[in-house]
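Hmm, what's this shape?
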Amino acid sequence: MSTYDFPDDLLQAQRAWYTAYRQLAQEENPSQTTVLRRTLQRLSVRIATHPYWATIPGRAPAARMALKQQTWESDPAEARR
C-alpha cells in the first residue's frame, strides 16, 4: 500500500467532515441538521477540489481512500467512544 503525505489542511477538513457527519446522524433539531448539511457540503467541496489531488495524477482514487482511512482511524472523537 502506498503512503501519502497529506497536507494538514486536507487532513483537518476530512476530520471535520467526519465530525459533522456523526453530529448529523445524532441530531434531532431540524434547524441544526440544515447547518450540518451545509457544513458537509462545504467541506466536501474543499476536500474534492484541494490542490493536493493534482500532485498525484492517476493515483487520486487510492489516495482519497487512504485519506478517509487515516482520518477515520485517527479521529479523536471516535477514540473517546
